[in-house]
């Protein structure tokens, strides 16, 4: 291939007028660079912008899906009660008035996660805007979950700090904390049990974020493996490079 390109360059140089020689030589050199590198050269701006578009798309779809009613509750990311809570509930459910407490609490903590998910976008946007060209190129040529893991490592601390108060408020809004307080109070009055009070808001926050990153990873993998989902010219051009 390289010899053919050199031959073309030589033919153009010796057969065309002088003014045309330079123009043709430049065009063929550009084409040769594209062929030898596996496609048109990508600028720093193109790679960075494409990765930001991809992350925006994945995050937007995940947040929209999970923040809808039943987004968590009727999905693979449904949040179940923590193990220590299940032990408490199993004992308390035998008491009058607590027969459906597990189902009720499970629904309410998922409702809290769905409410809190609406607050996630600005935090993700800040991390996406801070994406450098070096980060972008590494992510482009990385594993199918490279961008998700980048987001996770760069936002988990901030998300937990911002998410937990929202979860706590959301748990209050759906009366989950009130019910949990009643459950724990009733449980602690049972003779010979070890007094306990798991931090429900922290647990729900952690599980909500795990579910969100899980869905973002699914969206990233789909975009990498299915060219039909690349819905802009820039995404198609840049992600074609990782297909090579």
Characterize the structure shown:
InterPro entries: DUF4197 (IPR025245). This is DUF4197 domain-containing protein. The chain is mostly helical and 244 residues long. The chain folds into 2 domains: 1-41; 43-242, no CATH class. The chain has helices spanning 2-15, 18-36, 44-67, 83-92, 101-117, 121-129, 133-140, 146-173, 176-188, 200-225, 233-242. Helix 5 (101-117) packs across helix 10. The radius of gyration is 27 Å and the shape is elongated. The protein starts with a helix and ends with a helix.
Helix/strand layout:
Blueprint: H1 2-15, H2 18-36, H3 44-67, H4 83-92, H5 101-117, H6 121-129, H7 133-140, H8 146-173, H9 176-188, H10 200-225, H11 233-242
Helix pairs in contact: 1-2, 3-5, 3-6, 3-7, 3-10, 3-11, 4-9, 5-8, 5-9, 5-10, 6-8, 8-10
Question: What labels describe this entry?
Answer:
244 residues
How large, in whole angstroms, is the Cα Rg?
A: 27 Å
Q: How many structural domains are formed by the residues?
A: 2
Q: Choose one word for the global shape.
A: elongated
Number of helices: 11
Task: Kindly report how far apart the N and C termini lie.
Answer: 17 Å
Order of helices and strands: HHHHHHHHHHH
- Secondary structure category: mainly alpha
pLDDT averaged over residues? 77
Can you give the helix content as a percent range? over 70%
Name the poorly predicted regions: 1-38
Keywords: Signal
Pfam families: DUF4197
Signal peptide: 1-20
Protein name: DUF4197 domain-containing protein
Task: Give a concise summary.
This protein has 244 residues and is an all-alpha fold.
